[in-house]
């Protein structure tokens, strides 16, 4: 990315910092995941897409969470409004915030995560996020608006963990023949392009070695093999559609297949 | 190089007579005579050799102002002189070809048909069965009159190198001066300048110094004979992490390269972001390894070229840590490229017109 950032992305970053301000007492239990985390890892890739995924996605580690302040109260007090489904919030200027708990740590239930004192509507459960609690790094996130001086050091999921989480999201939707959001596949492509294969493979090995993330990582790599190692595979199609750049589609297909194949080979070494 | 003009057919014939006469065994003689009974045509004269015993032999003479190997073959074909493949070599035919200069290859072609030859520099092969005579002498192995044939094409590395010099350097300059500055062969440069002058793409003063060059016209003229994908040895690859990854890797490599094509042009003139990275390298293997390039059937985004001549590495510019080929080279490569490249070449020419001070040496 070069020049001034997209105004929508500036707003999305502001909403993220608003949410982090509101949840400050819990920051040790929170990891930035999703598209905003992807962009922090891929700022240099050249792939130009007109619209950004602007959602702010946060993963919560229930074991590290204090009982107060309540997540719901803190967000509401900062102007966020709850949406219909558990964990879904809307920022004052219309940016979606998703608060999620890894499925393995979310207790019984289908949708809402059981978060003790925080109730079962503050966050939703999502499979694959286990990895983001295991492989993560500290990063300082700055406001993109020049008049906003805020900066916060937070946990951000590693590229390998983000790949595992994205692959679960893509795999579930393809399996359920749900209306798939192609952009998840494009985010995956961005990560593969931006991060050296060795670094991703090291991350995958760390994830395989940890009991919390071992299973979801194994499943994710199966999804990777199934959906991304042939030029006409469904995941590759999704990424190509999301890029909306037919003239470049053969290069994208070839690149995605080459990089996915490289990672699988490096992970199996 | 010599300024002497190639000698005429008549002069070549006269010289041949003297050369043969000097080589005769003592008591023998050689003389050019009008062949009786033949009124017209190139074989109307013959060379008569007389032995000390009074025996004579006559060679039918064909005189040419110049003769390259291909023309020699065609000439002998029309004379019905076949290539013979007998163990003892071709049977001598009493025909001699005379020219100011015959190259080694031309001489081989002629001798292969059993035909004799004499050039004005002393290359001679004279053979006949009756009386038994065989003379072989060597003269010059380089044409003393190389400028006789005007250059018709800018194809080839020497012409390309010379063309780049003419376009890159700001006139006025003389041939020798420019040849020295740009390290090109003066003979080739002179021929290229002649061609460009005939096409009215440059002008010379009374002393022959080039004083004005239509460099854009010269590049367009070059692009009729030069073609990026054919003149250079190119191979297409996939850079799976995209062109930004390639440029950041190139900023740190230790080997010689020059970027050309759209990726290089976008550093100079505003064009759409490049889809294809094109670069000249000396060693493809090293480039493939260090830039992490992959061989794929389709979906390539990098073109590696082994250059037609090292001139592609000359007068390069450094921008953002990258080595870019000279704008004249990039323009010629784009003008002869595919897809939207020719129009990008036009954009670059427009930028070059507005920024001549920046790029011209």
Account of the protein in words:
The complex is a heterodimer of chains A (269) and B (361). Chain A has 269 residues and is an alpha/beta fold. Chain A contains 10 helices and 8 strands. Chain A has helices at residues 7-22, 34-42, 71-77, 130-134, 159-175, 183-194, 197-209, 214-228, 234-243, 249-268, and strands at residues 30-33, 56-60, 81-82, 88-90, 96-102, 124-126, 136-142, 151-157. In chain A, strands 1, 2, 3, 4, 5, 6, 7 and 8 form an 8-stranded mixed beta sheet that branches. Chain B is an alpha+beta fold and 361 residues long. Helix content of chain B is 35%, strand content 20%. In chain B, helix 4 crosses helix 6 (186-198) and helix 4 (157-168) runs antiparallel to helix 7. Chain B is elongated and about 85 Å long. Residues 38-43 of chain B have low confidence and may be disordered. The A-B interface holds A 44-48, 193-194, 231, 247-248, 250-256, 258-259, 262 and B 238-245, 248, 273, 275, 294, 296, 298-301.
Structure, briefly:
The complex is a heterodimer of chains A (269) and B (361). With 269 residues, chain A is of the alpha/beta class. Chain A has helices at 7-22, 34-42, 71-77, 130-134, 159-175, 183-194, 197-209, 214-228, 234-243, 249-268, and strands at residues 30-33, 56-60, 81-82, 88-90, 96-102, 124-126, 136-142, 151-157.
Key terms:
heterodimer, A: alpha/beta, eight-stranded mixed sheet, 10 helices, 46% helix, globular, B: 361 residues, four-stranded mixed sheet, 35% helix, 20% strand
């Amino acid at each position: 990315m070069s020049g001034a950032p997209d105004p929508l992305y500036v707003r999305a970053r502001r909403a993220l910092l608003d949410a982090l301000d509101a949840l400050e007492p819990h920051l040790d239990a929170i990891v930035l995941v999703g598209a905003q985390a992807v962009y922090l890892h891929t700022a240099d890739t050249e792939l130009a897409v007109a619209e950004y995924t602007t959602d702010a996605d946060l993963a919560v580690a229930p074991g590290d969470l204090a009982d107060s302040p309540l997540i719901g109260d803190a967000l509401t007090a900062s102007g966020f409004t709850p949406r219909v489904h558990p964990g879904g919030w809307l920022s004052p200027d219309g940016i979606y915030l998703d608060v999620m708990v890894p499925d393995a740590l979310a207790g019984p239930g289908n949708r809402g995560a059981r978060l003790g004192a925080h109730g079962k509507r503050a966050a939703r459960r999502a499979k694959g996020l286990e990895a983001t609690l295991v492989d993560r790094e500290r990063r300082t996130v700055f406001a993109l608006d020049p008049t906003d001086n805020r900066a916060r050091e937070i946990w951000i999921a590693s590229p390998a963990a983000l790949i595992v989480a994205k692959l679960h999201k893509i795999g579930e939707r393809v399996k359920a023949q749900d209306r798939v959001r192609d952009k998840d596949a494009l985010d995956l492509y961005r990560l593969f392009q931006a991060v050296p294969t060795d670094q991703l493979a090291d991350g995958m090995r760390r994830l395989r070695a940890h009991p919390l993330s071992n299973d979801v990582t194994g499943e994710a790599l199966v999804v990777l093999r199934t959906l991304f190692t042939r030029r006409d595979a469904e995941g590759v199609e999704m990424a190509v559609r999301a890029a909306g750049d037919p003239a470049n589609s053969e290069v994208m297909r070839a690149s995605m297949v080459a990089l996915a194949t490289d990672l699988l080979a490096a992970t199996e070494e | 190089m010599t300024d002497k003009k190639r000698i005429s057919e008549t002069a070549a014939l006269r010289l041949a007579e003297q050369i043969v006469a000097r080589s005769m065994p003592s008591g023998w003689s050689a003389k050019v005579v009008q062949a009786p009974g033949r009124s017209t045509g190139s074989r109307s004269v013959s060379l008569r050799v007389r032995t000390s015993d009074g025996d004579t032999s006559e060679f039918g003479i064909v005189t040419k102002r110049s003769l390259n190997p291909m023309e020699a073959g065609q000439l002998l074909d029309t004379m019905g002189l076949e290539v013979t493949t007998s163990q003892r070599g071709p049977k001598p035919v009493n025909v001699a070809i005379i020219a100011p200069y015959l190259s080694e290859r031309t001489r081989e072609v002629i001798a292969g048909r059993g035909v004799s030859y004499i050039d004005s520099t002393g290359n001679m092969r004279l053979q006949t069965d009756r009386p038994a005579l065989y003379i072989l002498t060597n003269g010059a192995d380089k044409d003393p009159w190389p400028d006789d044939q005007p250059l018709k094409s800018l194809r080839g590395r020497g012409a390309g190198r010379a063309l780049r010099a003419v376009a890159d350097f700001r006139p006025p300059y003389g041939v020798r001066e420019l040849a020295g500055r740009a390290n090109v062969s003066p003979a080739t440069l002179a021929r290229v300048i002649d061609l460009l002058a005939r096409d009215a793409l440059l002008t010379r003063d009374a002393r022959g110094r080039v004083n004005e060059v239509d460099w854009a016209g010269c590049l367009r003229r070059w692009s009729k004979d030069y073609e990026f994908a054919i003149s250079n040895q190119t191979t297409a690859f996939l850079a799976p992490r995209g062109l930004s990854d390639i440029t950041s890797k190139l900023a740190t490599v230790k080997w010689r390269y020059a970027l050309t094509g759209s990726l290089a042009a976008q550093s100079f003139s505003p064009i759409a972001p490049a889809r294809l990275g094109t670069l000249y390298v000396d060693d493809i293997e090293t480039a493939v390894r260090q830039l992490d390039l992959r061989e794929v059937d389709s979906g390539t985004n990098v073109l590696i070229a082994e250059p037609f001549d090292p001139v592609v590495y000359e007068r390069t510019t450094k921008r953002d840590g990258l080595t870019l080929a000279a704008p004249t080279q990039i323009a010629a490569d784009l003008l002869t490229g595919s897809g939207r490249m020719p129009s990008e070449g036009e954009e670059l020419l427009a930028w070059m017109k507005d920024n001549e001070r920046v790029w011209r040496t």
